[in-house]
Structure formats: C-alpha cells, structure tokens
Amino acid sequence: MFAFIVRRVLQAIVVMLIISFIGFALKQNVGDPVRELTGISVSAAERDAIREKLGLNDPFLVQYGRFLKGAVLEGNIGQSFFYKKPAMEVIVSKAPATLELVLVCSVLIVVLSIPMGIYSAIYPKRLLSRLIMGFSTIGVSVPIFLIAILLIYVFSIKLGWLPSYGRGETVNVWGWESGLLTVDGLQHLLLPATALTALMLPLFVRLIRSEMMEVLETEYVKFAWAKGLPRVRIWFVHAFKNTLLPVITVGGVQIGTMIAFTILTETVFQWGGLGFLFLEAVERADTSLLVAYLIFVGVIFVVVNTVVDIIYGLVNPMVRITGRK
Amino acid sequence: MNLWKRFRGSYFLYSFLHDPVAMGSFVVLALLALSAFGAPIIAPHDPYDTTTIDIMDSEIPPVWMDNADAKFLLGTDAQGRDMLSTMLYGMRISLVIGIGATFLQAAIGIVLGLIAGYKGGKVDNFLMRMADVQLSFSTLMVAIFLSAIFQAIFGVAAFESMAVPFLVLVIGIAEWPQYARTVRASVLAEKKKEYVEAARVMGLPSGRIMWRHILPNTMSPILVLSTVQVAHAIMSEAALSFLGLGMPITKPSLGSLINSGFDYIFSGSWWITMFPGFLLVLLILVINLLGDWVQDVLNPKLYKG
Questions:
Q1: How far is residue B150 from each of residues B100, B145, B166, measured CA to CA in Å?
Q2: How far apart are CA B266 and CA B251, in angstroms?
Q3: Is the Cβ pair B277, A29 closer than 8 Å?
C-alpha cells in the first residue's frame, strides 16, 4: 500500500512539473516583462540593466528553476499585469466565489442523483424512471450556457423573481467572503447553482443507474434474495455499497469538468469567481494571470485525482495489485 | 450489387427500420445537414456579404410578432443579418468543425491506441499515463486552455482569420485520449486471438498486422464512439465560441450566435439567442439518439473508466 501511495504522489509531482513547465514556457514567450514595467522614455541601456537585474538573460532552465523555487517556497507564481498584484493574491481573493458554487452544486448532485439513480435502477420500467431517463438524455444534449440563459430569461426577465448577475451581498467570515449566509447572496446563488447542477446531474444519474443495475444482477445479490433478506436491506446495504465505488472515481474525475463548466456558468451570470477572472485575463492578454490560473487549477486537479486514487486503492485492493506488476 | 444485397439483408438495416426513434433522428439529422451544407443555395440572404446587410434592419422580431418584416422569417440579429440564413451558415461551420475535429481525434487516437495496445510495455505505459492525465483535466478544460494559449501566442486577429482550422486542432488534441483508450482496449482483446498469431508467424511486419488485421476488427467500438464524439465536438466548439475563444462574430457558428444574442436578451430580443440555441440542442440531441441506437445495435464491449 505504501509503495502504491508513493508511486501515485510521484506521478502527481511529475504532472505538476510538466504543467508548470508549459506555463512557464508560455510566460517566457508571450509578452516582454521589461516592456510591461517601463515606459516609452526608458533608454535601451537602462532596459538592458533591468533585464540583467531581473535575471532575464539567464538560460531558460535557470529561470525555470528560479520560478519553481519561488512557486514552491513562497507560493509566488508571478505578477498580474492588470491588477498590479501577485497573481496568487488575486486568485485567492476570487476563489471563495467559485468554491461556494462548486460546493453547493456537489451537495445538490449527491442529494438528488442517488435517490433518482437508485429508483430508476430498481424500477426501470416505471413511468417515473422513464421520465428521469428521458430528461437525462435531453439534459446531456443541452449546453450549460443555454440552460443558464433560459433560467435567466424565465426567472429574471420574464418573472422577475431572481437576480440575474453578480453574487449579491456577502459577509466576511474569518477572511472568507461568503454569500451563503445572507438572503440576498442565496438568491443570487440559486440560478447559477441550478444551471450547474442541471448539467452534471444526468451524468451521475445515468452512472448510478447503470452500475446499480449491474450490481443487482450479480450472484451475491441473488443469494441475498434467496436468503429472504428484506428488500430495503438488499437494495441499500448490499447493492448500493458496491455501486458507490465507481461513482467515487468518476466523481473525482468530474471535478475537472465541473471547474471547466464554472467558467461557462460564471460568464453567463457575471459571477465574480475564478472562471470569470480567467476569461478576463484572456481578454486583457494578462498572460501572467493566465499562467497562474493554469497552475492553480492544475494543482487542484492533481491533488483531487491523487486523493481519489489513493482512497480507491485503499477501498479496492484490486487496483493496488494490478498496478504493482 | 452484392454489397447492396448484403446491406438490405443485414441486421443493421432491420433494426433501423424497426426503431422509430432512430429513423426519426436520422431524418431530422439528414434534413439539418442538408440545409446546412446547402446554405449558399437555400438561405434567403448571405450573412457574409456585408453589402446586403443594413444596420437599420437590426433586431427585427420573427414574422409572427409585431413590428416584423416579411423578408426576415425568424427576425434579424443585432447587426441586421437574417437569423435564418445566419443560423444555417452557422450550423454549417459547427458541423464542419465537429466532423473535422472528430476525424483528427480519431486519427491521433487510433494510431496511438494501436501502438500502445500492440507494443505494450513502456510505450503503452507512457501513452496511457498521458491519456489518463489529460482526461483527468476534462476535455473541455484542455480545449479552453489550448484556445486561450493559441490566442495569446498568435494574437486575436490571426486566430480569428484562421478560426476553423485552429478549432479543429484544439478540439482534436483535447479529445484524442477517448479514442486511444477505446482502440487500445479492443487491440488488447484482439491481440490474443489466433489470426494475429498466424499473421505474426507468417512474418508480416507489425505495422501491417496492426493496420490490416487488427484495426478492421476494432471498428465497431470506434464507430459507436465516433457518433458520440461528433456531438461532443460540436458542443465543445459551441462552448468555446460562447466564451469568445472560438468563431468570431463576423463568421458566427451557433455558439458565437448564442453569445452575441445574449447581450440583447435583456432588451427583449430573445430570438437572437433562442433560435440558434434550439437548433444546437436539436442537432446534438438527434446525434446522441442515433449514437444510442448504434451502440445498442453494434453492442461493443466499451472500455469503462
């Protein structure tokens, strides 16, 4: 087990190195930091002096090494050209908005997808199951920005019930700008969260349903029926437990998709989080911030995936053994 | 003639004719594709010809509403372009990018998947690790990053003038792991069979064994995956264009049309967003439904995970 964890962590480090390398190479080749720092009136000699002082004449790998050292030791991943602040600071100030959105959606997805998936697996022929599956087929085909636009059109423009953009009122809880504790913030959260949930839900419902149906066909479930166990016990204790394993892995991987979709959701709802920040950085050609976002999101993905893999390895010994060779 | 007879007697056709959903989706898809690729002939206006566009015609509602103009069946967008024509041209771009990107993914994925599955060992390990890592980032995320990086490197103007090949490239690179995994899984299963061993004993070069012997036997999972991937690529393109990282508004795809219309939805011009949106959903839905049917018919053992 120990070897498995070590190998997974090593792999995560390699992936992070590759991502940071790509990011750094990008930063090196796009834009000139000296030009960003100085005005037009600065002479060529002075520019060269600044260049030398900042170490921009060093070989590429030396500069990369310095960048890595700064990133790991001080969390310094560059300066945002637009905000004139360290990119890390900008990202951290915007992160709560996105994290809250993702958190609320994850909770909603777990609460909704499990009963829906189990129900449609147990009674595949019932009308309600067919409705659930029909909706999820359509749901897979509707892009999230359209769901979001439709929600805005119906609930903000036509009915005027809910606000269409922004985060609303937030309160500061130990340095965390939270919108979850005010009525206004919750009202603002409702539409974006619904859009994001509506998009991810079909995937999970289908996954849980197909896994559950597969498990219900297995021998040990048949044996449980033969033993005459109560139905509820067979469904929820025997069958559902083994359904959860693949759901955990896929769920972990879906974090990536979810972050990609926050970019789309945040754009539609002008939600001041990371995705919105990323698009602004693209529009302003703020390469430094762009690279910082790339690295930040990369860290989240890699950490989440590694943790999910290790949990999976802990729960399911087959993974460890086949991986060992 | 012989081929036609075989096709007529095949289970493929039989199940198609006995599945109303599949037939319906096929008819709708054929109609959509026909009108998209026939856009220069059937569209009432040419949205790329700036001389025929009048800014005074902007935001005219569809014909069944007040203040409409009979010339514009589905109304006009903010630049005074006829919605119907712009949507048809837009759908053409969406389809071209979707199909082009799927071909590129398939090309990269099949080659790498064949090599990984057949050679095994270190090559396999390396390629599949790469695929895993890329997939863990989700294909849309990779596509968004690649577009952003391309725009940063080449500049927005160059990107916009070359948007179609760029998008094909971006989506193609972002989604190859899907193919590579599927192909690899089928190659692993085929590799153990006797016909491959026979070919090897005959001394055929491994390239020929992979290409002529194994690949034809992995076709059904590839076909199933391809239908899903076309829908996926169209959706990715729409998402990129919606973010402003895809097709420019002068040559809009369905995604950029939805994006441009979104600014006007608050002033009540819902049709600029809703019509392209509806068309996009319809297009993706029928492709997905066809994909479900193909999967049921061919019933390949898909690689899960």
A1: 18, 8, 8
A2: 24
A3: no
Sorting pLDDT into bands at 50, 70 and 90, what band is B303?
A: very low
Highest mean pLDDT (candidates A18-32, A149-163, A289-303): A289-303
For residues A68 and A20, the answer to whether their CB atoms sit within 8 Å is: yes
Which pLDDT tens digit goes with each residue over A239-293? 887 787 777 777 777 777 788 888 888 888 888 788 888 888 887 777 778 888 8
Q: Which of B171, B166, B141, B137 is nearest to B151 (CA)?
A: B166
Do A143 and B235 lie within an 8 Å CB cutoff? yes
Mean pLDDT of B105-134: 86
What span, in angstroms and rounded, lies between the C-alpha atoms of A146 and B183?
A: 33
Subunit contact A26:B152, Cβ cutoff 8 A:
yes
* pLDDT given at position A320: 59
Amino acid at A166: G
Collapsed DSSP state (helix, strand, coil) of residue B229: helix
Q: pLDDT at position B304, please?
A: 40
Interface touch A157/B265, C-beta < 8 Å: yes
Q: Which of B239, B266, B274 is the closest to A264 by Cβ?
A: B239
Mean pLDDT for A195-221 is 85
Chain B CB contacts of A293 below 8 Å = none
On whether the pTM is more than 0.95, the answer is: no
B284 touches chain A (CB under 8 A): yes
Q: Name the amino acid, one letter, at A292.
A: A
Residue B3 in contact with partner chain A when CB distance is under 8 A: no
Q: Which residues contact A271 (CB under 8 A, 6 or more apart)?
A: A97, A98, A101, A165, A166, A167, A192, A265
Question: Cβ B239–A256 below 8 Å, yes or no?
Answer: no
Rounded distance, CA A296 to CA A304, Å? 12
Q: Which residues of A touch B148 (CB under 8 A)?
A: 278, 282, 290
A185's CB contacts (< 8 A; 6+ apart) are A167, A168, A169, A170, A171, A178, A179
Q: Which of B198, B180, B200, B201 is nearest to B135 (CA)?
A: B180
Q: Is A146 within 8 Å of B284 when comparing Cβ atoms?
A: no
Q: Do A287 and B258 lie within an 8 Å CB cutoff?
A: no
For residue A268, give the chain B residue with the closest CA: B262
Chain B contact present for A133, CB below 8 A: no
Task: Please report the ipTM that was assigned to this predicted complex.
Answer: 0.76
Contacts of A294 in chain B (CB under 8 A): 145
User: In which residue are the tokens 């069946």 written?
Assistant: B73
Taking CB atoms and an 8 Å cut-off, how many pairs form between chains A and B? 102
Whether residue A179 has pLDDT greater than 70: no
Q: What are phi and psi of B269, to 5 degrees?
A: -85, 75
Say whether residue B135 is in contact with chain A using an 8 A CB cutoff. Answer: yes
Phi (first) and psi of residue B18, to 5 degrees? -105, 15
The stretches of B43-138 forming alpha helices (DSSP H) are 83-119, 121-136
- Closest to B288 (Cα-Cα) out of B221, B241, B229, B223: B229
Burial of A39 (0-12, 13-18, 19+ CB in 10 A): exposed
